[in-house]
Amino acid sequence: MNDNIGRGKWALILGGSSGLGLATAIKLARSGYSIVVVHRDRKTDMPAIEARFQSIRDEGVQFFNFNADAVNSQSRKDIIDQISQLPGPDGKVSVLIHSIAKGHLKPMVSDKTATLDVSDLQLTINAMALSLYDWTKDLYSKNLFSKDTRIVSFTSEGNTKALPYYAAVSAAKVALEAITRSIALEFALKGIRANCVQAGVTDTASFNMIPNSDKIKEAAIRRNPNRRLTEPMDVANVVYLLCREEARWITGTIIKADGGESLL
Amino acid sequence: MNDNIGRGKWALILGGSSGLGLATAIKLARSGYSIVVVHRDRKTDMPAIEARFQSIRDEGVQFFNFNADAVNSQSRKDIIDQISQLPGPDGKVSVLIHSIAKGHLKPMVSDKTATLDVSDLQLTINAMALSLYDWTKDLYSKNLFSKDTRIVSFTSEGNTKALPYYAAVSAAKVALEAITRSIALEFALKGIRANCVQAGVTDTASFNMIPNSDKIKEAAIRRNPNRRLTEPMDVANVVYLLCREEARWITGTIIKADGGESLL
Amino acid sequence: MNDNIGRGKWALILGGSSGLGLATAIKLARSGYSIVVVHRDRKTDMPAIEARFQSIRDEGVQFFNFNADAVNSQSRKDIIDQISQLPGPDGKVSVLIHSIAKGHLKPMVSDKTATLDVSDLQLTINAMALSLYDWTKDLYSKNLFSKDTRIVSFTSEGNTKALPYYAAVSAAKVALEAITRSIALEFALKGIRANCVQAGVTDTASFNMIPNSDKIKEAAIRRNPNRRLTEPMDVANVVYLLCREEARWITGTIIKADGGESLL
Amino acid sequence: MNDNIGRGKWALILGGSSGLGLATAIKLARSGYSIVVVHRDRKTDMPAIEARFQSIRDEGVQFFNFNADAVNSQSRKDIIDQISQLPGPDGKVSVLIHSIAKGHLKPMVSDKTATLDVSDLQLTINAMALSLYDWTKDLYSKNLFSKDTRIVSFTSEGNTKALPYYAAVSAAKVALEAITRSIALEFALKGIRANCVQAGVTDTASFNMIPNSDKIKEAAIRRNPNRRLTEPMDVANVVYLLCREEARWITGTIIKADGGESLL
Questions:
Q1: Which residue of A has its CA nearest to D182?
Q2: What is the tens place of the pLDDT at every residue in B213-255?
Q3: Which is it for strands D10-14 and C254-257: parallel, antiparallel or unpaired?
Q4: Which chain D residues touch C248 with a CB distance below 8 Å?
Q5: Which of A184, A207, B76, D93 would be A252's cystine partner, CB 3.0–4.6 Å?
Q6: Cα angle at C49 between C44 and C52, to 5 degrees?
Q7: Cα–Cα distance, D237 to D260 (Å, whole number)
Q8: Reduced to 3 states, what is the DSSP secondary structure of residue B157?
Q9: B7/chain D closest Cα distance in angstroms
């Protein structure tokens, strides 16, 4: 069902070459959005990634990608300069997706392995939370948001739970949510709606970097009332819903897309 | 935009002659759903209500209404008997909306007015919360739910806040949410998704029964980052999103449709 | 450490012959409170219970017990009549503890066993939630609360989680919490503070009635960061803290006493 | 009531020369704790502060203070070196209080005033959240915590609300809470309990730096069910409760000390 809600609109996806970001890019392209992806990948991985990007172009929409570090200030400024001349009815960003997963997974206490220090927390919070504000602020100050803009970022059950190795990511996720609430409040009259989607355990490259990820996935399948893991497209579908006209009264919230996993 | 996601499907709306229930009926009819409304209205109000129902029929969908007390067991059984023979591809209920607002608004302490007692709490909880389970259980046991069913009910900020006069409704709303979580868990593998939508302050007949509703509405407009009250269609739009295919991984949650009102 | 914070004060404990209620009675007696326990036990169990009650008397405080159904209106009225003549400086109730665990544990869906119906929900909500309001209202209207009164009741992680068999208790717990918030609000200027304590998995008679309670207990020990179950005295200790002068600014809250169990 | 629960124990208070930190120092000294305060004050303010410190000494406990920046790494290391030789039965820290309020209060959007940027967020999060982990980690690695240690820090309703000017503090507060949950989990078996106390609106120097703080205080008095602001000693009292033996099963939680203010 290609419903074309995105025709003539642009979605900018930070972290769009894999996982939740890529699934979102595909789903939005199927709905007619032209897509800009910022991603950070090695040259050796690019052939596989190019194939995914081609599948986005195959939806008949415009597509650009920037292989650059979305957390780096200069890269951000360069990219924003370039996308200030997007083609189209208004050439503005209607959807901003933040899917940057870059952080440190270390225990606070351990005799065996390196433990978390504050620089790990800083790096993780910068990448996974504060960068959302940097992009929002710069795009806004350059007048690059459309009159009706949706910002969506991704959180996890680490927002209320403490998990071994996950302290830095937990702190980053709650900071991301707080920033989202402030954006929702302070940019409301500028036409911006900002929300987080809380995915269940999803079999992505980032997730698999967590120690014991296999055991966590097994436990998640047993725990999930629907007896399966969350798939990237489950989450992308919810992002899509938040981009629709009917979602314009939803802002500053956290929406769970987990098949009920967090219920038990 | 009539996207016809509801073509060949039925939505059963408890409390569908005004407010959030009516707006939902209209929105779903515009999307192709055939509609059954259960409502409780006086004869003298029916001409005005018939006009609203006609606007639903005018969307080109099938429509039935039952003027009966949805909280009464015998009425429920009678209605379920009658809708066990709905026309259509499967003749089943794909969407169940619970919009029953019937409760007591009394203070716990007062020298001037009657105070809340436990029978008020019971009546309010029965009507606004437990009736959702009665309908769900009976429809399920009669095999009247479709393979992919969405249940949506309405909650409010009274789920975390205490407001004067609102004790019984607060208790009912949190009970409704808990029952929704249990339905989401226990009926997951039966194809049912159950969620609550938390509306901001909305100018409906039920809301206006709260003492000082005018002041509450004024305060809500000042407080809302979007500087207006929630409108019934804002909420109906979110129900619509929850009925879409893309929402099938959302279950057991509470989704705020308040324009950010609860942020401050 | 008998610190005598309760000297000259009375604590009324609903459900005080076992579990959290009994542990609270013992802890408060050790701190000098005189104790009234309402409990519901069979004659054959009374010798064992009398021994526990004797240990309360042995703390050197006054003690009365009523073997009656605290949920029954007539019993409540009779008991309140009798405690309207408590000895002591003011003869009033300074602490009201609600530890009534009486409910139905049934699944919503099952081919094998009886399923939950609305009357089960009603009975459970009446006993585990609404009875708190009945006692509060009647004691207040008879002017039996002291000028500084603490009301404490018990909730569980079922307030946010859905567990098989636990739907009715979940609904009751959230209703109890909502009623507690309303009491905290509406009775604030009458000198009443009302809070809930959320215990971790505790090895009590009520807990052991949950199907698969053994497995749940094993899982709780593994999950708890402190690697043991919650003990009744862990929870009673927190109730004691809420009765101290220093807790008078805590009201309308839920305090977890679970050794961190709900963190993961 | 000097109950001497702190006799022979040390409390280390970061930010202890005013507000919540100072009130906590006084309350704990009254309970027999010896006190180390780290504070950051101008020379001109020291006479007034010295008088407060004298009132702590007057409780008959040992007292040291360090006028240094608790957020600075070198200062932290220097102070920890010095307190590694505290007198007393074990010379260890039994209570660590984090009361560092140092952040930027700026709007995200404004035509009139400087707006928040990411470096403001970083500074605020570092000072108000990450520094808790730095102190915890260093004290732990130097074996300076006692076998039963309580860590308490201060949060606010900004943890769920978005307020103008408050975005950086909100992000810091939720990060602080997440770090507290991780400390509670990961240090549980080392004998550490970590909690946050959520104060209502309190008339402190830090609070008065928020734009429109007068209006916020007026609104808080009207809103609070107890019709007054939170006082520093209300909050210090709750910290005291968390230091008692009876609180040892409370960890990883947020406890509201607001007189019910957040209920409406």
A1: A162
A2: 999 999 999 999 999 999 999 999 999 999 999 999 999 999 9
A3: unpaired
A4: 234, 237
A5: A184
A6: 160
A7: 16
A8: helix
A9: 40
What are the strands of the beta sheet with C192-199, ordered from one edge? C63-67, C34-39, C10-14, C93-98, C145-155, C192-199, C254-257
The reply to whether residue D241 touches residue C241, judged by beta carbons under 8 angstroms, is: yes
- Closest-CA distance of chain A to residue B45, Å: 30
Subunits that touch chain A (at least 3 Cβ pairs < 8 angstroms)? B, C, D
Residues 223-252 of D with CB under 8 A from C: 225-227, 230, 234-235, 237-238, 240-241, 244-252
Beta bridge partner(s), residue C13: C37, C97
A245 class by beta-carbon count within 10 Å (0-12 exposed, 13-18 middle, 19+ buried): exposed
User: Which chain D residues in 148-207 lie under 8 Å from chain A, judged by CB atoms?
Assistant: 158-159, 161-164, 166-167, 170-171, 173-175, 177-179, 181-187, 190
Contact at CB, C225 and D184, closer than 8 angstroms: yes
pLDDT, tens only, C31-72: 999 999 999 999 999 999 999 999 999 999 999 999 999 999
- Are the beta carbons of B128 and B169 closer than 8 angstroms? yes
**Residues D240-249: b if buried by 16+ CB within 10 A, e if exposed:** bbbbbebbbb
Is the ipTM higher than 0.95? The answer is yes
Out of C188, C252, C263, the one facing D185 most closely (by C-beta) is C263
Check CB contact of C123 with chain D, cutoff 8 Å.
Answer: no
Q: What is the pTM of this model?
A: 0.98
Angle between helices B131-141 and B167-186 (to 10 degrees): 30
Answer whether B257's CB lies under 8 Å from B23's CB: no
Contact A241 B244 (CB under 8 A): yes
